Amino acid sequence: MWRKQRTSVLLLALLGVGFSGFMLYSHHFQFDLSVLIWLGYVPIALLFGGLLLYYRWRNHVEVTDRGLKVSNLLSSMVIDYDLLRSPRVQSLDRHFQDARKRYIRPCNKPLMNQPALFVRLRGDDAQVAQVRRKLGSQLTSEDTIALPIPDPDAMAWELSTRLPEPTGTNRGGQRRRKRAR
Fold first, then answer.
1. pTM greater than 0.85 (yes/no)
2. 93 and which of 47, 80, 112, 123 could share a cystine (Cβ 3.0–4.6 Å)?
3. 75 within some domain
4. Range of the domain at 140
């Protein structure tokens, strides 16, 4: 979002300075309402740029000692490693198939063909429902969380090294021996 909006921040600031200077020059260096209106664009641009930088700073995913920390603009949540089952990297458009197409935001459309981190959740329905409620329906689908992050491969590797080993599951094995003829 920052990359798409930073030009509008610069444009607002330049328009405010440029047109206020032009209006000041055309009115023979007398301040009136039109000059003040164009000067108002500069603090608005600075406020908008500051909000975008704050949004960029607050939205992140990180692996901590306690679990996977997912932060958005107003809140953050730490998902314990016992609730995480398997991280994998897939294209983000796999998350928005069929009936989930209505959850696609305009800022996420350019990310659809990019790889994203998919994390499956384990645990009882109450714990999974709490995670889904906190993260929202855009990021979660049943027991899967989709996280569009800049480097999903590194995050998946780091997350898989911290997950507890699965117990009692058949993880595959050697091939069966061939029958003797």
1. no
2. 112
3. yes
4. 60-162
